[in-house]
């Protein structure tokens, strides 16, 4: 049975790459938001965005953070990581910078966003608990195949990790 997950990513930079992962059909994800829908949500300010995140995350067992070149600096991605962890959901990161975008370009690896999120009062960062995978492959197609083959296992592992922390 495919898990139902929440996908978190930097929309402006990585929507095309993220859509490749979302469309693999290996796991079920939140409904993609269109540019127009996202603009309408943003017009409602932070409370509307928070509500949208909560609504999208409801019923999901894991947050899959698709990490591109600037993901770690995105306010809402970091919020989504915190919300998922605090709600007891699995959290896992997958680097997507080596997938081609709509212009057939790859990108550079960004910082690990889990270094920006603390874990309770322990002084530890989520990076010491949450896995960030860098899919192997010599080109975009090979990276895609690595993600497609492994994403369901990575999600299951994230759920187990969260259950034990």
Set out the fold topology:
Blueprint lengths: L3 E5 L2 H12 L5 E2 L5 H9 L1 H13 L4 E6 L7 H12 L3 E6 L22 E2 L4 E2 L6 E2 L6 H24 L2
Parallel strand pairs: 1-2, 1-3, 3-4, 4-7
Antiparallel strand pairs: 5-6
Helix pairs in contact: 3-4
Q: Which architecture would the CATH scheme give at its second level?
A: 3-Layer(aba) Sandwich
The CATH topology:
Rossmann fold
Subunit organisation of the chains: single chain
Structural class: alpha/beta
Overall mean pLDDT: 91
- What percent strand? 15-25%
Choose one word for the global shape: globular
- List SSEs in N-to-C order: EHEHHEHEEEEH
In short, what is this structure?
The protein has 165 residues and is α/β, with parallel strands linked by helices. The protein has helices at residues 11-22, 35-43, 45-57, 75-86, 140-163, and strands spanning 4-8, 28-29, 62-67, 90-95, 118-119, 124-125, 132-133.
What do you see in this structure?
It is a single chain. With 165 residues, this protein is an alpha/beta fold. The chain has a single domain (4-29, 60-163), classed as Rossmann fold, CATH 3.40.50. It is built from 5 helices and 7 strands. The strands form 2 sheets. Strands 2-1-3-4-7 form a 5-stranded parallel β-sheet. It has a two-stranded antiparallel sheet with strand order 5-6. α4 (75-86) links the parallel β3 (62-67) and β4. The two termini are 24 Å apart. The model has no long low-confidence stretch (mean pLDDT 91).
């Amino acid at each position: 049975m495919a898990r139902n997950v929440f996908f978190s990513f930097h929309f402006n930079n990585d929507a095309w790459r993220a859509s490749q992962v979302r469309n693999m059909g290996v796991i079920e994800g939140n409904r993609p938001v269109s540019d127009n829908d996202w603009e309408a949500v943003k017009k409602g300010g932070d409370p509307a965005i928070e509500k949208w995140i909560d609504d999208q995350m409801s019923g999901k067992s894991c947050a899959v953070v698709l990490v591109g070149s600037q993901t770690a600096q995105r306010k809402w991605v970091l919020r989504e990581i915190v919300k998922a962890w605090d709600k007891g959901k699995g959290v896992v990161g997958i680097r997507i910078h080596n997938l081609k975008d709509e212009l057939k370009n790859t990108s550079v690896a960004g910082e690990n966003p889990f270094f920006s999120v603390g874990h309770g009062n322990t002084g530890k960062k989520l990076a010491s608990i949450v896995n960030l995978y860098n899919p192997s492959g010599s080109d975009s197609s090979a990276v895609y195949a690595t993600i497609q083959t492994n994403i369901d296992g990575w999600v299951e592992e994230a759920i187990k990790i969260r259950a034990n922390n």
